[in-house]
Write a structure and sequence with these properties.
Distance between the termini: 39 Å
Order of helices and strands: HHHHHHHEEHHHHHHHH
Oligomer: single chain
Number of strands: 2
Strand order of the largest sheet: 1-2
Helix content: over 70%
Number of helices: 15
């Protein structure tokens, strides 16, 4: 294999998520003419924004090479539930700000617990975060007592479902700000470089004077904070809070980060690629919804209804309508092209 070909293959493997994203765009733009409309693209970006924030937090944990953060969904749940108690319409701005700080503090505290157990006790991250997840879920269920908090303040509703200047969804702006912040921390600060080194070669990092345990705690604290921010946005998006939310959020965040090029072994990955990972997952879900809608519409066309009624008549009357059955078999199915 020539050196030039090897470089091209390496480049394609490194940025494979860009090719996948482009391919999905091309397929969906051909499959449905409404896919490339401004409203649909803004809707896709809005839906992927919260996933992007969680995936950025998962990136901080995965770069350490210790495993994934299985407690992310539970952190979203408990932080949103505790913060929502301060977000009622009757409360003032001080209470709202306090609620935001409480939610973020809960996420950071959960990250500290995860990081300390992983770094000082040398326990697997998946095992530790799974146990913390169950504890946080239990606390959230006990706090909510099966109830739902509604009547959320308009300011929080604006964060989750508002539009800046009446056009750009607020979630998109917040997600982009956190993406820029994560990229700056990881690429332009000593803390970020140490996270990469800790994940790539912990032994070399230790001999270089880098405090590995501290970096592990920092990584999981960042993951917890990002999850808490996503929880606050989720409250604004739904206009309510309950303990049930976020059951599979950690799987979605891991998938988006992995598709975006973050290595499970640690030390490798670009936070900008996580944007593509979040968009790919959201686009696949959007494509599935739109294609199912098209399929359901085609199944309600008069030709398909006629064919279904003919077949039913043949079955119920024991061959009385054999000529109808033969006619039906000659009618092409609207799904044959798929």
């Amino acid at each position: 294999m020539s050196e030039n070909l090897r470089k091209k293959l390496t480049f394609m493997a490194k940025y494979s998520y860009v090719f996948i994203l482009t391919l999905i765009f091309l397929i969906m733009s051909i499959a449905t003419d409404r896919f490339l409309t401004v409203d649909n693209l803004l809707n896709v970006a809005r839906q992927s924004s919260m996933l992007l924030i969680m995936a950025l937090g998962m990136t901080m944990a995965m770069l350490l090479g210790r495993g994934v953060d299985m407690s992310m969904g539970a952190i979203v749940s408990i932080s949103s539930c505790f913060a929502a108690g301060f977000f009622l319409q009757s409360h003032n701005w001080v209470s709202i700000l306090l609620g935001v700080l409480v939610g973020i503090a809960i996420g950071a505290l959960a990250g500290v617990v995860n990081g300390m157990l992983i770094s000082f006790l040398h326990l697997p991250a998946m095992l530790v975060t799974y146990g913390v997840r169950e504890i946080l879920r239990g606390v959230a269920y006990a706090y909510m007592n099966g109830g739902v908090i509604t009547s959320i303040h308009p300011a929080i509703r604006f964060i989750g479902s508002g539009r800046i200047l009446g056009v750009i969804p607020t979630q998109i702006v917040i997600a982009l700000l956190f993406t820029v912040l994560a990229a700056f921390l990881l690429k332009c600060t000593r803390m970020g470089r140490e996270l990469y080194i800790t994940g790539a070669n912990p032994a070399a990092a230790l001999f270089s004077g880098i405090k590995v345990e501290k970096n592990i705690i920092i990584g999981f604290v960042c993951s917890g904070i990002m999850a808490a921010v996503a929880g606050i946005i989720y409250v604004g998006r739904l206009g309510a809070a309950e303990a049930e939310i976020g059951a599979d959020f950690h799987f979605q965040a891991v998938s988006a980060a992995a598709i975006g090029g973050i290595s499970f072994n640690g030390g490798v990955g670009n936070p900008w690629g996580v944007i593509a990972g979040a968009l790919i997952l959201t686009l696949l879900n959007n494509a599935d919804t739109r294609l199912r809608h098209i399929s359901s519409l085609s199944s309600r066309t008069p030709l398909v209804k006629l064919r279904a009624n003919m077949r039913q008549g043949y079955t119920e009357n024991d061959g009385k309508y054999r000529f109808l059955s033969r006619f039906c078999s000659s009618v092409p199915s609207p799904h044959s092209s798929w």
